[in-house]
Specification:
Elements: E1 2-5, E2 8-12, H1 19-28, E3 38-41, H2 44-69, H3 72-88
Antiparallel strand pairs: 1-2, 1-3
Helix pairs in contact: 2-3
């Protein structure tokens, strides 16, 4: 995982960090950049693993709920969650 700000490399980390871990890293290293201004670059393997975990925690329960009641609203909630996970952990260009 790489952390960039305005295309400048801030850190290259050998694992995926949560927002809390990144915030701690920034504070510890006295880097005053808001999280919202950072770009996170993942290797393909990192993105796949992060997606796998996020799907299990976030989207799988929504999928099961949709399968149970088959409402369009729950289907859309599941699909939106999947799209958000893919956007959060994009594959490298």
């Amino acid at each position: 995982m790489q952390i960039k700000h305005n295309d400048a490399l801030i850190a290259s980390i050998g694992e995926i960090w949560s927002a809390a871990q990144i915030a701690h890293f920034l504070e510890h290293n006295e880097i005053d950049i808001p999280l919202g201004e950072l770009t996170f670059i993942y290797s393909r393997d990192e993105a796949l693993e992060a997606r796998r975990i996020a799907y299990a925690v976030e989207s799988d329960p929504l999928y099961m709920e949709w399968q149970y009641d088959q409402t369009e609203e729950n289907k859309q909630a599941w699909l939106t969650c999947v799209a958000n996970i893919k956007a959060r952990y994009p594959f490298p260009a």
